[in-house]
Amino acid sequence: MKVKLTKKGVERWQRGHPWIYAADVQEKPKGLTFGDVVQVVDAFKGWLLGHAFYSEHSKISLRALNYDASPVDDNFFAKRLEAALALRQTLYPGETSYRLVHGEADLLPGLVVDRYGDYLSVQLLVPGTERRKKLLIDLLVSQLKPKGIVNRSDVNVRNLEGLTPEKGVLYGHVPEKVPYREGDIHFELDLLNGQKTGTFLDQRENHVLARQYAHGEALDCFSYGGGFALQLAKSATHVTAVEISETACAQITANATANHVPHVKAVAANAFDFLRDAVDEGRKFDTIVLDPPSFAKNKGAVDAAVRGYKEINLRAMQLLKPGGILISASCTYHVDEERFEEMLDSAAADAKRRVQIVERRGAAKDHPVLLSLRETRYLKCFVLRVL
Ligand code: SAH
Predict the structure, then answer these.
(1) Distance CA 288, CA 280 (A)
(2) Ligand 1 atom index nearest CA of 195
(3) What is the CATH number of domain 2-66?
């Protein structure tokens, strides 16, 4: 089946952008079905440009799979998985917990696979991967020999593709608690019910790094299971972990006990209120982490998101003693690094503090960025020193 691209579509394809919108499709054959792999063709020259997943209901009609005539068969997916695994083995020799497949950035559109030792957590986000569920699971089983695989496709983006959110066990047996380690901090993850695919793997390397900077009185806002808080505790004298979810707070306390860092105290509160009250009470901290959820799901919400970021960063800067460390993250793709940095500059001016950028970081290395797809560059994590 051939799908022909308009001139604009061809230009986009040739720049390596892996998404082609419906408006850039000149002509599609009748009878295309759910998740077909199609040949992508230049409508004017008739040339074959490569292959893509077709998605009927999505605004994104095509997701690029390859850029030549080679077939997209079982072996194609086997090779792509092997290539993704090879990068992780290079990055983390001997380790078995990481993001194994990061969708488009691993040239496997609509597929996310996180590996937690013997267990895998999978997201099938487009019809192309949903339809090949059995093949993909068979390949993962033969390449990695996991004991169990969970499906965490319980995400709303599936609705945009005409798929309903789903979760469950796809293979083997998955215990309620799966062990997982970051440096020397141990966690037990509930892969079926935890946030995302079990935890926030993208912040893994930043968690570990935070320990190096932490000192004195520390505050971790938007803490979830305490990924930052427990690392801070290894260097700080006391850690307050602020988290709105009571369930997550109980988890922080359990994790702190299991890791013998009883000086982590979980506070169930709205971080915005906590920060405002702390400023009003004249409290001071030496180390603060801000890692909020995404504040903008679309472009229209960017200004409000930036105001939200500014509010919490301004307060954090007011709360820090001279020489204090602020680790400030944003996972909002629509607020890019430049905008985030401008916001920090404006917050510093209002707080009347001079602030050094010590590190500009992003997601862990197993979440590679595809140069031609800016959407894969979503996480910012700045390490700042407030003078
Ligand atoms: N820092 C965590 C991930 C944070 S995800 C880590 O590195 O693992 C964002 C968290 O913020 C979620 O757990 C969510 O429950 C919490 N949250 C959302 N809104 C909040 C608010 N207004 N105040 C405090 N916590 C909030």
Answers:
(1) 17
(2) 13
(3) 2.30.130.10
- CA dist., res. 111 & res. 83, Å (int): 14
> Does the annotation mark 331 as catalytic?
yes
- The response to whether residue 222 sits with its C-beta less than 6 Å from ligand 1 reads yes
pTM for the structure as a whole:
0.94
Atom 20 of ligand 1, nearest CA residue: 244
Fold (CATH) for 74-176: Transcription Regulator spoIIAA (3.30.750)
**What is the position in ligand 1's atom list of the atom closest to the CA of 271?**
23
Q: What is the pLDDT of residues 279-330, one digit of tens each?
A: 999 999 999 999 999 998 888 899 999 999 999 999 999 999 999 999 999 9
- DSSP letters for 12-36: HHHTT--EEEGGGEEE--TT--TT-
pLDDT in tens, 60-97: 999 999 999 999 999 999 999 999 999 999 999 999 99
What tokens does 165 get?
Answer: 């959110």
